[in-house]
């Protein structure tokens, strides 16, 4: 039987869920994607046991996933009435509260996407050294990514990590989508969370070329520091976003 949430069989889905992160976190992301995709037309989620069967996980796992969505303000759960989507919330705009990639966020907003990726090893300049907590001149792996929305540049991201943090040295010619994937392949530690600083910015210099914008165009600048569960900083990302394509909101409770 095909899983109506993921489009794949429950057994295969269960194996996929075990490859990254906790089962509850990944089940939560699957349910969130279904909410964003409008699969719950009446705004009401299936009962816990049905969701658990669809995702191939236990009821304990799906209960933890729904509790996470409730804490984020996306759903309300009441005994006797079940779980309903909070209609005042646009889940696709909550990218800052989710460890979701920009390609996913653009697709959830209805765009056809593509990504251009360039990777190289460079010595850390003073700004990069401060971001990563390394010395000026230390070798770093830097990846730049241009995310296209319907063929037009929407987001420009620079990811960086100190080469010394990697157990094996990846080839700069092999494209890696994000630091999470990079560390999965080349380090035993995994990133657990990111801290994001948000700033307004006017387009200038190279970013005008990267995003095909005239100088002075308002942009959203996100400066992210990525941490392991133990609190060790393992990398940084700087994202410059044309808010014509992506907007963000934060729920305060």
From TrEMBL:
GO annotation, biological process: negative regulation of DNA-templated transcription
Top-level taxonomic group: Bacteria
Keyword Transcription: yes
Pfam family of the protein (one): GntR
Single GO MF descriptor: DNA binding
Sorted UniProt keywords: DNA-binding, Transcription, Transcription regulation
PROSITE patterns tied to this protein: HTH_GNTR (PS50949)
Domain HTH gntR-type residue range list: 21-88
Keyword Transcription among record annotations: yes
PANTHER family associated with the record: MANNOSYL-D-GLYCERATE TRANSPORT/METABOLISM SYSTEM REPRESSOR MNGR-RELATED (PTHR44846), MANNOSYL-D-GLYCERATE TRANSPORT_METABOLISM SYSTEM REPRESSOR MNGR-RELATED (PTHR44846:SF1)
Identification of the protein by name: GntR family transcriptional regulator
